[in-house]
Each structure stands twice: as C-alpha cells, then as structure tokens.
Amino acid sequence: MSILKPLRAPSRVLAVAALLMALSLTDSSLAQDAAPPAAKPPAPAAAPKPASLKVKLTSLEEWDTQIDALVRLSYQVNGSQGGQDLGGHDLQYYWQQNVFTPATKENLEKLRDTAQKQSVAKDTTGLQKTLDEASAILTTEHAKAYIVSLFLSAQDPVVYHQYQLGPWLARATDAERQGINDRVAATYEQLSRSLAEALKQPDIEKLGVTAQGFMKHLAEPITFFNAERARMVKAQAELPNPVAVAARTRGKDEPCPAPVPPVKGRDKPSLGADFPSSEAFYPPTAKLNDVEGAVTLRVTVSETGCIQRAEIAGTSGVAELDDGALKLAMAGRYVPAAGAGDKGAAGTVLFRVKFEQPDPFNAAK
C-alpha cells in the first residue's frame, strides 16, 4: 500500500493565485499582468468584502477591459504549472469547469453585440440595462473564482498534516496508513460537495458563509490527524532507528544572564518565574494549520542558572514544533539547583511544552 506523500506544490499557492485573480479584476491594474501569489497567504477562512468583487459597468470601454482581463487570466491559469490538490486536480481543472466557461463567453459576446447596437442607436436606457446584465454575470464570475480559491485553501491544513505524518506513516502498519488515506479521501469528498453547492448559487454577499462551510469539514479530521500522530510517536518510540530529532546548544557568543541564586532544598534546576509561554514560540505555519503537539525538553543548567544545552527528550512528531520548543527553552531563565552552602549547582531539568489551539477551526475563526 502506498504511503501518503506531500503534494509537489501546496494548494494554498494555487488558491491565492485564484484569489488574486478575482481581486485584480476590480482594481486599477486591469491593464497589467496579474500579481504573483502572496508569500504569506491569508487564513483559509478569510473572505473579501463583497463590494471589492462587485462589477458595475458604466461604459463599453469598461466592459472590454473586464473581458480582456478575464481572457488574460484564463490564459495564465491554463499555462500555470502548479501542484495538485487532494483529488489530483490543479487550478486549471477547476477554472475551466467553473470560471469564464465557453457558455459564459458566448452569453457575454451576444450581450456585447446588443450593447454596441444600443450605443449606436443612442438608446441609453437599453444600454444601461444591458450593462447591468453583464455586470451581474461578471460579478458571478468573480464569486466563482473566489469560491474555487476558498475550496483549494481549505485543503491546505489537510495537506500540511499529511506531510507531517509522512515520517511516522513510513513506519506504520497498513491499517494505520489506510485509516489516514480514508480520512483524507472523506474530507476531500465533503469539501467537493460544499464546492458544488456553493457554485450552484455563487452569491458574492455570502462568501464568508461559504468559507465557514468549507472550514466546518476540517475540525474533525484535524483533531484525528493530531491524535494519530501523537499515538504513532508514542507507539514507535521503542522501535530501532527512531526518527531523528534536533538539539540546540547555547552559542559561545551568547552571554549568560546575571547569576540567579538557588532555592534551598531544591536538588534540581527549575524554571524561572518569568518563563515565556509557548504561544510566543508557536511556529506560524503550524499554528495556521492547527498542528498541535507536546514536546518534552531536557535542559542542562549551570550553577549560575545559565542554560548550557537544550535537547528533545520526547518529540511532538513535528520538526517545527520541536524547534519552537527548543527556541523557547533557549529564551527562558532558570533557577539553579541548590549546592553546598549558598552556592548553586549545575543540573538538568525536564519539562513539557504544549502547542495547542483553544478551538481549532471553529466557525468564527
């Protein structure tokens, strides 16, 4: 049975490209090439203000500019070399089926001919009516482009969890791999049904509701993926050749903080009173995709309370979370163990760092 593999390109890149295509149709850059995908995309549940995607044509020149932009963007989509989504499709597949289709082009061409005749005949009332009809069609195309973008973005957390599960699935049983495969397939089917429903009536005023409709399908599988990874990490802990984890050592050029007096009676170092929280060290990409986990750290502390070394004693199963925990350990202040008299003593301390979301993928996110 094949192991789940990461996609060649995250679907978020494709989704943001579609989003920017939709948004670019309404700004002053219509005569320019479409902007490249954003380096740091918005959260999947984000939706634009409906007014930013509405089209209100007032002249044939504006009409032609809008059509030229759609044609240009369609060419760019058809020529793009992006990755595939969970269903094995790319942006081009969804665009060709749903956005600026041949039927839509034909309808707009007929309306354009009617508008041209009305303009020549000085029929301003009839012309504006035709312009309004075309505006409604173009606005619908914007909504459909954004809905496709939301659909692709909604898959990104699943792709990210799928990637993080990779090292553990490589050593898992066929039944465990099948369980992940089944959950991924079920999630894609649910998202696809929501896409089909949203495209039946693409309402630009309800894009926020549409986004929430996609997000509601993620809470259960994301919880499952986090739990399965934690379970596999624990189950595989005693296997030979464990998954490699990193260690972080205080550099020579990093000065130690002022000595901290020990607490009498404590034979091991402890965390300082102002020890940082995990929230400040939660890796942004992991947090965005609701990847949760707990890391057990072993920290060596000098007799003055200066950290000498931090290492992973128990991995979360996610390299990013482990690295975030190590950074937290290096940034913290420590109290040394009690030594002879009033002096401190070197030692090691074990503690756990949890990275978790209060309410992953809730509807208000």
Structure description:
The radius of gyration is 27 Å and the shape is elongated. The protein has ten helices and eight strands. It has a four-stranded antiparallel beta sheet, covered by helices on one side. It has a two-stranded antiparallel sheet with strand order 2-5. Helix 1 packs antiparallel against helix 5 and helix 5 (124-169) runs parallel beside helix 8. The protein has two domains: 11-233, no CATH class; 247-355, TolA/TonB C-terminal domain (2-Layer Sandwich), CATH 3.30.2420.10. It is of the alpha+beta class and 365 residues long.
Low-confidence stretches: 1-48
Distance between the termini: 36 Å
> For the residues shown, what is the average pLDDT?
83
String of helices and strands:
HHHHHHHHEEHEEHEEEE
Largest sheet: 4 strands, antiparallel
What descriptive keywords fit this protein?
alpha+beta; 365 residues; 10% strand; elongated; single chain; disordered N terminus; TolA/TonB C-terminal domain; two-stranded antiparallel sheet
Q: What is the compact description of this entry?
A:
The chain has 365 residues and is α+β, with helices and mostly antiparallel strands.
